[in-house]
Amino acid sequence: MKQSVVTFFKRMRGPGKCGARHSLSWIFWSWIGSFLGILAVAFFNKLLPVSATDSVLLIGSFGASAVLIYGTPHVPYAQPRNLIGGHFISALTGVAIAQYLSIPIELQAALAVSLSIVLMHASRTLHPPGGASALIAIIGSEQIQDLGFMYVLQPVLSGAIIMLVIALLINNLRHDEERHYPKCWW
Fold first, then answer.
1. pLDDT digits (tens, 9 = 90+) for 85-113
2. Minimal CA–CA distance to 120: which of 83, 154, 147?
3. How many helices (H) and strands (E) does the chain have?
4. CB–CB of 184/81 below 8 Å?
5. Residue 186 burial (CB count, 10 A)
6. Is the dihedral of CA 23, 24, 27, 32 positive or negative?
């Protein structure tokens, strides 16, 4: 028993080395992509007939998606299948729970995120920001709640597609194999 406890805590030491810093060129292209991706989503949001404080198209989970698809376009979680599928499945899960389960919001939130993870794993579309899209469907503003299942299409799916288009353009401007995007579609 004592050895199991010692082993348990030794695992938390993290003896490996952190990754190397990317080049200034890599960082610049990550900045350009994320700036243009979020700007494009925000621009399309401005075209919608809503107040500036109720950004329907611009949701918090897109910030995390930007880190993945522009900052680390080579990782599996950043690929188009994961970006689109992860957000879609998670948003659908969150809305379904919000609409059909009359349980306390704390349970809805926990169930939406955890079930989204299960469904993303099962469909091979794991995209960590998808968990936030599920959570937003539960805890979002009244305007988000009023969208119901439309939340899945707009803002989630439409915003993810806008960001994908920008990622395809920006990440392929450089002749860097590591930055080439996507590594796979399906």
1. 999 999 999 999 999 999 999 999 999 99
2. 83
3. 9, 0
4. yes
5. 8
6. negative
How many residues does this entry show for the chain? 186
Q: Where are the domains of the chain?
A: 27-42+56-171
Per-residue b or e along 37-65, where b marks 16 or more CB atoms closer than 10 Å to that residue's CB: bbeebeebbeeeeeeeeebbbbbebbebb
Rounded to an integer, what distance in angstroms lies between the CA atom of residue 42 and that of residue 140? Answer: 18
Cα-based torsion angle of the residue sequence 90, 94, 99, 100 in order, rounded to the nearest 10 degrees:
90
At 4, list the tokens: 């199991």
Residue 22: what residue type? H
Q: Say whether pLDDT at 53 is over 50.
A: no
* Mean pLDDT for the chain overall: 91
CA distance 94 to 115: 9
Rounded Cα–Cα distance for residues 92 and 144 (Å): 13
* CA-based end-to-end distance of the chain: 45
DSSP 171: H
Other beta carbons within 10 angstroms of residue 81's beta carbon come to 17
Tens-place pLDDT, residues 122-170: 999 999 999 999 999 999 988 899 999 999 998 999 999 999 999 999 9
Structure tokens at 79: 């690929």
CB 73 within 8 A of CB 167: yes
